[in-house]
What we know:
The chain is α+β, with helices and mostly antiparallel strands. 34% of the residues lie in helices and 15% in strands. The protein has helices at 47-56, 68-74, 84-102, and strands at residues 4-6, 9-11, 30-34, 60-64. The strands form two sheets. The protein has a two-stranded antiparallel ribbon with strand order 1-2. It has a two-stranded parallel ribbon with strand order 3-4. Strand 3 (30-34), helix 1 and strand 4 form a beta-alpha-beta unit. Helix 2 packs antiparallel against helix 3 (84-102).
Amino acid sequence: WPSVRFGGREWIDAGMVSAANATLAIGHDRIVVLAPMFEGHAGISSAQDDVAHLNRTGARAILAVPDAAAREAIGPNPYDPTRARAAAESGRHQGRILATEIKPLWT
């Protein structure tokens, strides 16, 4: 992505440590990782790797990734703004389903 000027400063898109940076939550007991882009690339850890690591530290971590319908709505380019509405609607539908899986973390 090109740099962006905001607040009188120049900002750039920097590198990433993993697909979700979920290990930043180490030290918390219950963690829900929402990872729309969850696969690792070129040596970058996947969100699944992050959640496995969190669970090895004693946390109870759950990973939520787009289901097949959501992936279809998002399409091949997750940055395509023309697909935002369909992706949001699909994510909202999936979120209602995932809520039943996530609820036990807090009960």
